[in-house]
Amino acid sequence: MTDDEPTSTRNLDRYGNAPLPWSRARDVLAADTPTADLTFFVATVRPDGRPHSAGAGAVWVANALYVVGGPGTRRSRNLAANPACSISVRLRGLDLILEGDARRVADSGTAARLAEVYRSGGWPATASGAALTAPFSAPSAGPPPWHLYRLALRRAAGVASAEPHGATCWEFAEA
What are phi and psi of 112, to 5 degrees? Predict the structure, then answer.
């Protein structure tokens, strides 16, 4: 078993369908980010304990999910204080929730690699140290540079909206 494979799988389906393989979610993430029109929602915890959720640009690279956040955004401020978060997305045939800790990327090489991935999807990002810049981003993102965060995946849950149907929870080793 590799670090990016689940340590356990739990079938959540009530209708007799088999557990979904993690590879189904992983392969769609790899194939569809950043080129498909996907909206990822990042849920974080405010300092007072209340939840916060916002859309974010995300890509799956080398078996990890990365998201972008402007340094002044509520999402980035929340993650700086508490990295625990969940990220949800509707993929082709599968609704997916990913849970774990999102930590800021501090490596300029990773930022350069991710900028290239984002460019392949149409966002003209470039690396600026360990952050990204571009001529534009979402109106709510604030000014560049934008931080990158890598999700250390601890749990994921998927509900299939296409054959084969099913619902499954996958647990991962702590990173």
Answer: -65, -45
